[in-house]
Amino acid sequence: MIEVYKFCGSNEDECRLKCMDELDVYNNEIIIKCYEENSLYNIDVVKKEDIKKFINDYINEFGEKFGIKLSTNIYEDENIFYVKIKSDNNSILIGKQGKTLNSLQYMIRKAISTECGFNVSVNLDVSNYKKIIEKNFETDIKNIINEVMQTKIETKLEPMNSYKRRLVHSIASNYYNIETFSVGEEPERYTIIKYVEK
C-alpha cells in the first residue's frame, strides 16, 4: 500500500517543512504533488520507499501467479524507478519482441496511479534485455547511416515509437553530412535518414 500524506500551508516551503518534520524524511525521499485549494497551498506526498515496496510486491505477485522465481533490484534516480529483474524464466517475462515486458511496465505504472493518484515513471528490464536491444538498434542505425553516406541515397526507416525516433536523431547528430526528420502520423510515423552536402 502506498500511503498519501497531505499537508497545507501558506506556501510550498511551509508545506514541505511540515512534511519533513512530521514524516521524518528528507526532500529526496519523497515525491510531491502541489495544488491550491480554499486559498491554501496543499501538497500530497508519497514516500519513494513505499513506491519501491509496492513495485517489488507487484512483481513478486506476478511471478507467483505464473510460477516464476524472480528477484528484483529497484533504485530511483530523478523520480524514475529503475527495476532490474532476474528470473528462472526470462523468456516468459520478456515475451515476443519485449511485448510482455512493456505490458508489465505499463501495468505497474497504472497500478501505482490507481493506488495513490501519482503518475510515476517506471523503467523495467529483465537481465539487461533492453540494454542489449538498444545497443543492437544503435549498431543497426550506424550501419544504415554509413551506407547513406557512401551511396548518398536517403533511407526511409520502418515506423517506430517516439523513443526510438529520438535515438535515431541523436545518433545521426554525430554525423556531419547527415540529416534526419520524421514523417507521418502515429503509429505509422517513421524517420528518414538523408545525405546533405555542406
Structure description:
By secondary structure, the protein is of the alpha+beta class. It folds into three domains: 5-47; 49-128, K homology (KH) domain (GMP Synthetase, Chain A, domain 3); 132-195, 2-Layer Sandwich (Ribosomal Protein S8, Chain: A, domain 1). The chain is built from six helices and nine strands. The strands form three sheets. A three-stranded antiparallel β-sheet has the order 1-3-2. Strand 4 and strand 5 form a beta hairpin. Helix 5 crosses helix 6. The protein is globular and about 65 Å long. 18% of the residues are buried.
Q: Which characteristics define this entry?
A:
198 residues, alpha+beta, GMP Synthetase, Chain A, domain 3, 3 domains, three-stranded antiparallel β-sheet, 29% strand, globular
What is the topology?
Layout: E1 5-9, H1 12-23, E2 30-37, E3 40-47, H2 48-65, E4 70-77, E5 80-87, H3 90-94, H4 99-116, E6 121-126, H5 129-151, E7 155-156, H6 162-172, E8 178-183, E9 190-195
Parallel strand pairs: 5-6
Antiparallel strand pairs: 1-3, 2-3, 4-5, 7-9, 8-9
Helix pairs in contact: 5-6
User: Within the largest sheet, what's the order of strands?
Assistant: 1-3-2
The rounded distance between the terminal residues' Cα atoms is 58 Å
Output mean pLDDT: 92
The total count of helices amounts to 6
How would you characterize the largest beta sheet?
A: 3 strands, antiparallel
Shape: globular
* Strand coverage percent: 25-35%
Tell me the series of helices and strands, N- to C-terminal. Answer: EHEEHEEHHEHEHEE
What CATH architecture of the largest domain would you give? Answer: 2-Layer Sandwich
Q: Please tell me the total number of domains.
A: 3
CATH class of the largest domain: Alpha Beta
